[in-house]
Amino acid sequence: MRNLKKVLLGGVPALALTVGLTGTALADYSLSILHLNDLHSRIESINKYDSTCGAEDEAEGKCFGGIARIKTMLDQRRTALEGEGKNFVTLDAGDQFQGSLFYTTYKGEAAVEFMNGLSIDAMAVGNHEFDDGPAALAKFIDAANFPVLSGNIDVNNEPLLKGKVPGILILEKGGEKIGIVSALAEDTSETSSPGEGVRFIMAEDYLKGAVEALEAAGVNKIIALTHEGLTRDKQIAAAVPGIDIIVGGHSHTLLSNTQERAEGPYPVLVKNPEGVEVPIVQAYAYGKFLGEIEVTWDDEGNVIKAEGEPILLDASVAPDETFQARVEELAAPIEELKSKVIGSTAELIDGDRGSCRAGECSMGNLVADAILDRVKDQGVEIVIQNGGGLRASIDAGEVTMGEVLTVLPFQNTLATFQLKGSYIKDALENGVSKLEEGAGRFPQVAGIKYSFDPSKPAGERIVSIEMADGSALDMDKVYGVATNNYMRGGGDGYKVFAEHGLNAYDYGPGLEIVVADYLAANGDYKPFTDGRITQVK
User: Fold this and answer.
1) By the 8 A CB rule, do 346 and 396 touch?
2) Comparison of pLDDT for 506 and 97, the residue scoring more
3) Could you give the 3-state DSSP secondary structure of residue 280?
4) DSSP 128
């Protein structure tokens, strides 16, 4: 039974959605939270690079995730918890949209179909849910059999969304009321396309009012389901009293107590304004993990324990047969998409490994120029793309989407940030530091020109760096830079991006989409090299 009611939270009207379930309360109350975030349209299973896993790798047990594995594990865990008499909720922290050809083909329709089959309790709006404007999100919400939440967005001036995005959900589980509040990254208007009718409120301002309203209504168990990223989640935890746990997304952070590449423990603990430690969880991205944490409250509503660990969805988890059959059915037209002609090229576009990992190559110029063209109106002046991310050449003639995907198979996303000139030099030094090994870190560029001397020691090889207009790179100036999310996170030795990049955003459109759109807009593309990278003899 669902009942809607209006609540005034922090001066902002928001819908509260109440879902009633029956049960019995105990003095100490425990709730298991099963959670996903940032699936990014990885409906099919993924490989170790987080891109779509091929049939051969699947047969060899090298694949992870996929919506059918998620279905299996969710069903297994909920059945087990139910058998133990435990309370549980299933939450998604947003960004179902964008990231694979399933999204390109079906937009949000495939995502909502599978999400409906997962029987989740609530989903947060992610910034990428706005990638095709309010209309696509509204269509998703209309088709969903679960509430889609976001409290710090004001949609009253967007007719397609007005009245459709609750800010609060109150669940009853085991005789206890569980309040769920939600917030979305405030810079979504810069990273996606919400339109002029959607206004964003600082999460802290909204959540303080929302939590106070819940507490006034007698709800003392409060989950913040956010799509803000771990850094912002920490700030929110430190600023907003009354939140008992934050289940987050957006930064694709792996928190774990067992995984080697974890970026922190599961959960991360941050003290709130009252000195109470607030657990924060996130489960990486792309459906590779299912998060599970058990939270225990005492009779006064204080959290006394929060323990858990994300579950790796590897080949040991058998895909749900019904889901898998539907995935394969929906995948059939995608094979047709791969054969779609998206442009043409007058000559071979050279993406050969030997070319792109040793010097300027025409494929490097194409990809870097396409990236710069996509973000030049965002203050970006410089692009650095690793040559190792370019995996093939494209023959003269018609260019298909499949060929672009062969060049860029990793489903990397466009990443933007700001970086001081001296750190840009450091990045280029890293890029040419392993030239002798043919390392993939070699930097293809746009917006700058540079020369290097391979006879010098690594770290001292960059001879000159100029902007495209011929002026010297200013070592003290902060520049807008774009790359791919792998490099921005420190991949291929580009730690300088991860450590010194400011205002980073790693989750723009896929590079394959960026390049395909650029080729489509440029008619019969003419590959070229123009001396932007030179080797001092």
Assistant:
1) yes
2) 97
3) strand
4) G
Separation in Å, CA 221 to CA 85, 179, 238, 422, 454: 19, 6, 18, 49, 61
How far, in Å, CA of 275 to CA of 242, rounded? 11
Phi and psi, residue 93, nearest 5°:
-90, 20
Q: Where are the alpha helices (DSSP H) in 30-186?
A: 55-59, 67-83, 101-106, 109-118, 133-143
**pLDDT per residue as tens digits for the range 133-152:** 999 999 999 999 999 999 99
Residue 20 has a pLDDT of 37
Instruction: Give the CA dihedral 189, 190, 193, 196, nearest 10 degrees.
Output: 40
Sketch out the chain's domains with CATH numbers: 2-6+14-119+235-332 (3.60.21.10), 341-535 (3.90.780.10)
For residues 299 and 303, give the distance between their C-alpha atoms in angstroms, rounded to a whole number. 10
Instruction: Tell me: pLDDT of 271 over 90.
Output: yes
Q: Dihedral angle at the C-alpha atoms of 79, 83, 89, 91, nearest 10 degrees?
A: -20
Rounded distance, CA 316 to CA 116, Å?
25
Please give the C-alpha separations between residue 436 and each of 12, 422, 439, 440, 449, in angstroms, as whole numbers.
60, 24, 8, 11, 21
106: left (phi over 0), alpha (psi -120 to 50) or beta: alpha
Q: What's the pTM value of the predicted model, to 2 decimals?
A: 0.75
